[in-house]
Design goal:
272 residues; alpha/beta; TIM Barrel; 8-stranded parallel beta barrel; globular; binds 3-methyl-2-oxobutanoic acid
């Protein structure tokens, strides 16, 4: 579905909740810049995440840890300027909320004030309960993130599937219930078994959004650059690649170079 109408109805957290209630799946993608966000929004996704995966995708870091709150605000404000319909959610980056709930609140407020985004996302369960509650009490909608939480990669040691064992699965379910009870509007479930996603999604009232978490989540999210095939070589099992932009872009740029070197660009019509 494309959205061409001039009086576009904004997607809100309430609309996301209603979608779960009537069993309509929620489509979500990441975006980090103005041009891409405009394309993603016009195509009709309900939710755009300015993920800290910008650290990998946009800046070339190996992990999400180095990205700063200023850099997240830069990406988020660029996205917000382009988006007319989707709900824009921004990741609180590593180190901006783990210290204490006051720090978490300050970071969330900075993101909301300086980027114009609509909600924030934090990784973790019980460990960050107080911070999430403080942010919620300031009127800022919060999305949780459980399962594989990339900001803790050095604790996990690998990017493999999480919560396969009973103890971790039980904690994840409890964390999801807690995030629901305290008032989060949604929770991302990353790289966990499908059966656990189903159990969580059926046990909580707020929508789950899965990535590598199987078909039972209330919505799905992927990293835009992976969906478009921009990053060659990243092909995890959970990823469905819908285009091969790397090859398409390479061909276009190769042709441009050929035309410049062959002196066929610019021609007369392309000159003043
Ligand atoms: O940073 C990100 O892109 C994310 C998604 C993978 C959910 O957190």
């Amino acid at each position: 579905m494309s959205v061409h109408s001039s009086d576009i109805k904004r997607v809100t957290t309430h609309i996301i909740q209603e979608m779960k209630t009537r069993g309509e799946k929620i489509s979500c993608l990441t975006a980090y810049d103005y041009s891409m966000a405009g394309i993603v929004d016009a195509a009709g996704v309900e939710l755009i995440l300015v993920g800290d995966s910008a650290s990998n995708v946009m800046a070339g870091h190996e992990t999400t840890l180095p990205i700063t709150i200023d850099q997240m605000i830069y990406h988020a404000s660029s996205v917000v300027r382009a988006v007319k319909r989707a709900l824009v959610v921004v990741d609180l980056p590593f180190g901006s909320y783990q210290g204490n709930s006051g720090e978490a609140l300050r970071s969330a407020i900075r993101i909301m004030k300086e980027s114009g985004a609509h909600a924030v996302k934090l990784e973790g369960g019980l460990e960050i309960k107080e911070s999430v509650m403080r942010i919620l009490s300031a009127g800022v909608p919060v999305m949780g993130h459980l399962g594989l939480t990339p900001q803790s990669i050095y604790k996990f040691g690998t990017y493999t599937v999480r919560a396969k064992e009973e103890v971790e699965a039980k904690k994840l379910l409890e964390d999801a219930k807690m995030l629901d009870e305290i008032g989060c509007f949604s929770v991302v479930l990353e790289k966990i078994p499908s059966a656990l996603t189903r159990q969580v999604s059926e046990s909580i009232s707020i929508p789950t959004v899965g990535i590598g978490a199987g078909p039972y989540a209330d919505g799905q999210i992927l990293v835009l650059h992976d969906v478009l095939g921009i990053n060659k070589g990243f092909k995890p099992r959970f990823l469905r690649q819908y285009a091969n932009l790397n090859d398409i872009m390479n061909e276009a740029i190769t042709n441009y170079i050929k035309d410049v070197k062959g002196k066929s660009f610019p021609n007369e019509k392309e000159s003043y």
